[in-house]
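YtxH-like protein
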Amino acid sequence: MGLSSFFKNLFGSTKESVTELANNAETTFEQAKEAAAPYIEQAETFAEETIAKAKVASEPIIETATEYAHQAQEVVSEYAEKASDAISDVIETIKEKTSNTVDDTKKIVTETVVDESEPAIEAADDVAHKE
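Structure:
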């Protein structure tokens, strides 16, 4: 029986030690939480102030960037319109030149056919007159 009482005392005292450590840890945690509270509040205040300062400092930059973006948009729109007009003019010029070239080609072909047929007609007339 001495052995069983030894184990009961050993584990009983261990159980009491663990409970005591858990209680001490909880107390220590609460104390640390209380001690850290002012620092956490200071960190939150610092973060809020820094964000507010960043917003104030960035407002003129954002306004300037917005103005430049609008100006860029206007310039791009203007040049896009001019480029569109220029491309339309080029297309019209190409159509006119192509049309003129086709008309000239038809005229040359017609003249060539007429030129070649005239001597044959004259030769046929000469033969017919000689008979």
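Residues 97 and 103 are 10 Å apart (CA to CA).
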